[in-house]
Amino acid sequence: METDAEKTEPRIMPRVIEDEMKESYLAYSMSVIVGRALPDVRDGLKPVHRRILYAMQSMGMLHNKPFKKSARIVGEVLGKYHPHGDTAVYDAMVRMAQDFSLRYPLVQGQGNFGSVDGDSAAAMRYTEARLNKLSEEILQDLDKETVKFVPNFDGSLKEPFVLPSKVPNLLINGSSGIAVGMATNIPPHNMGEICDGTIQLIDNPSITPDELITTVKGPDFPTGGIIQGTTGIKDAYKTGRGKLRVKAKIEVEEKKRTRLIVTEIPYQVNKSQLVEEIAKLVRDKKIQGISDLRDESDREGMRIVIELKTGANSDIVTNQLLKHTRLQTTFGIIMIALVDSEPKTLNLKELLEQFIKHRRIVVRKRTEFELKEASDKAHILAGLIVALDNIDPVIKLIKAAKSAKEAKHGLIEDYKLTEKQSQAILDMKLQRLTGLEQDKIREDHKKLLELIEKLKEILGSEPKILNIIKEELTELKEKYGDDRRTQIIAAEAQKIEEEELIKPEEMVVTLTHAGYVKRQPLDAYKKQKRGGRGVIGMETKETDFVEEIFTANTHDHVLCFTNKGKVHWIKVYQMPEAGRYAKGTPIVNLLELKNEKITATIPISEFAKDKYLFFVTKKGTVKKTSLEEFSKPRKGGIIALGLTPEDELISVDWTDGKKKIIIATEQGMAVHFDEKDVRPMGRTARGVIGIKLKKDDNVIGAVVAEDNKTLLTVTEKGYGKRTPVKDYRLISRGGVGVINIKITDKNGKAVAIKSVADDDEIILISQHGIVIRTAAKGISVVGRATQGVRVMRLHEQDKLVAAAKIIE
Predict the structure, then answer these.
(1) How far is the C-alpha of 283 from the C-alpha of 578, rounded, in Å?
(2) Is the pLDDT of residue 359 over 80?
(3) For the domain bounded by 45-164, which CATH number is listed?
(4) Are the beta carbons of 322 and 247 closer than 8 angstroms?
(5) Boundaries of CATH 1.10.268.10 in the chain?
């Protein structure tokens, strides 16, 4: 026998952790799937919604009864059926009352029940609610033993396992939920279409999903909007999964200024966040052409006004808005629901079949209940009629009886009545002996016999049950059916590219040393007479300056090369258009760069096979590649040339295949060669040796050599000199080269080279950010093997790091 100590001693059972985790997690996941996150295919409700509706009906909160406080409803649901958080219950009830969340709301709310702007509902102590009439159709016949009732969480009460639901609620209101390992996202539909589709399926059980689509056109969202194309709808209705592209309804209003008016937005998009999103994109200049944005929505409906700048193309702006904002979204349809407590992916036909199956069971059980009730009543009335036919002897028998028990027994014996019938005779009021009352009893009995016959016929005929379901659906359509809110349009035969809407126009593109880019129409630079003062092309910081300026068409590409050897594309029209005084936008904001910096930008109007890009790397490698290789842009950029880990791209120049190239190094060497020495190579090739470097030497730059110009070389200690290009003899690529500048302790390593003419202006930049501007002609033209002259006076700890040609 166990002692008390043995009884209280904890029992430890060895268990493999993998098995324990597997079983526990499976139990948890099934609990979430069945008891929380997925709707039942029959009534389209999750447990929390079912319990709210049942509790409200039990409280007598019908559509024609007074409202009651939401807190009272939540308390009823929590205390009796749903032992979870009060916020979860209230949030679920609030959503059932929102006409922008449910296509056909199930709860009527009074007070603040939230808005499409994402405002939350008022606290439950302030709001009131009652059932909507449609909910009463879902709960109808609950008292006729149509569905199974199960014990509540503490076994003290019973609650319905599923509701009878005359309404195809799963499809008309949709459902979304995230379970464990699966999620459902069923869109709402139009009541009329779903009722017609269900009737069509009843009439023709072998109908295909393709044929059903002619009746059920597609989802019908409470917030309207436009579904583009039917491919996603067809996929979802055939397989249970599909993707819809839903966009806002945007109208163009021509007044003093052109306006875009948004009157409907995609389902589940927060309006205020959408307006903020548009405003941010306008501020960041990602969307051009918008001058004003305001939300004029009121109780009459939604109205977001987007005012356009003078001359802005409404089609282009609309396209940009749809591309960059949630004015166009993707709705992923996943039609998963519980079928006999198991999650299943169902297509449209299967969903409707499950609803019809449920209604057949409900109608049959309701008919059986009504038959039993009518039979019991007819049985009682038959006994009363016997008593009325023999009223005097019956009264005499009752009067003569010593007790009610004796009277009941006498009636059973003498008139062959049942116990229930004889009891009914004894309970009958004397007023029922009047002529009118007697006639009423006989008439009621006759009607009951007819009803019993009718009910038996229904139970004996499956087509009659289906006809009842069809009649109920037709009645629902007449009562609650309304016009579609969501428009379905055919997908554009050919996707209109943004570029097709952009007017071809010559632009002046400016790029600063710090990487700010902008474009302006060529007309902004007015033609002036000789001696004119010119126009300001760009306002820049003292330490920044315009390094590149070129004209290009809005449809031209600009190739942006990075130090990591990648190339990114940007169209000229994608660069922000800005005024004369604006500095522009950092080019890194327009490209997807990852720890890279722009080394070179080259405008390209045509990717010609006989035109080339000439690459030079820090470690002396060169490569020539046909422009044609760069004709297929890709988001995120592609490799322009292969690099070793310690190498990086220094220079990229556009050539025609017949140019001469000069490459210079830190240690003062230079090689001058014909680019014909470098054969064209593929895009990912690493290239060939351009200059043979000494130990610890690196390439500092490369230029396309022109005999009528000089080569400017500057060193880190502020020295520089110009040397005629013709002084550099032409040799083969890959050599050590010739002395470009004499490197000493006095002048330091070479840092930059530039091909310059006398009228060029040079900017020199130091490590500490000191910038000086000087005319090229002020720098001496001397021989190759000289150390140069001082071009910039530097502090002891400072050094010169870059030189650039300035462009006015």
Answers:
(1) 13
(2) yes
(3) 3.90.199.10
(4) yes
(5) 374-466
Place 492 in a pLDDT band, splitting at 50, 70 and 90. low
Give how far Cα 472 sits from Cα of 174, 212, 354, Å: 21, 20, 17
Per-residue pLDDT of 364-404, as tens digits, reads: 999 999 999 999 999 888 888 888 888 888 888 888 888 88
Reported as type and span, the H/E element at residue 386 is: helix 348-389
pLDDT tens, residue by residue, 447-461: 999 999 999 999 999
Tell the CATH topology of 503-605.
Neuraminidase (2.120.10)
The single-letter DSSP state of residue 485 is: S
The three-class DSSP label of residue 600 is strand
Degrees to nearest 5, angle at CA 145 with 141 and 146: 60
Does residue 464 register a pLDDT over 60? yes
Residue range(s) occupied by CATH 2.120.10.90 in the chain: 503-605
SS3 call for 324: helix
Q: Which residue, among 579, 441, 489, 542, has the nearest Cα to 772 in the 3D structure?
A: 542
Please tell me the distance from the alpha carbon of residue 587 to that of residue 596, in angstroms, as a whole number.
12
d(CA 378, CA 420): 12
Q: Are 723 and 760 in contact (CB under 8 A)?
A: no
Pairing of strands 226-228, 487-489: parallel
What does the alpha-carbon distance between residue 675 and residue 730 come to, in Å, rounded to a whole number?
Answer: 11
Q: What does the block give as tokens for 39?
A: 């709707």
Q: Is 126 a catalytic residue?
A: yes
Catalytic residue among 90, 104, 126, 516: 126
For domain 249-326, give the fold.
Gyrase A; domain 2 (3.30.1360)
Q: What beta strand segments (E) does 212-257 contain?
A: 226-228, 241-247, 249-254
Residue 22 has which token pair?
A: 């597997």
- Condensed to tens digits (0 to 9), the pLDDT of residues 58-86 reads 999 999 999 999 999 999 999 999 988 89
Q: Which fold is adopted by the domain 374-466?
A: Topoisomerase; domain 3 (1.10.268)
Average pLDDT score over residue span 589-614: 84
**Closest C-alpha to 288, from 308, 262, 261, 304:** 308
pTM for the model: 0.66
Report d(CA 93, CA 48) in Å as an integer: 9
**What percent of the chain shows pLDDT beyond 90?**
51
- Domain limits, CATH 3.30.1360.40, in the chain: 249-326
The mean pLDDT value of the chain amounts to 87
Q: What residues does CATH 3.90.199.10 cover in the chain?
A: 45-164
Parallel/antiparallel/unpaired status of strands 128-131 and 68-69: antiparallel
Residue 533 has pLDDT above 80, yes or no: no
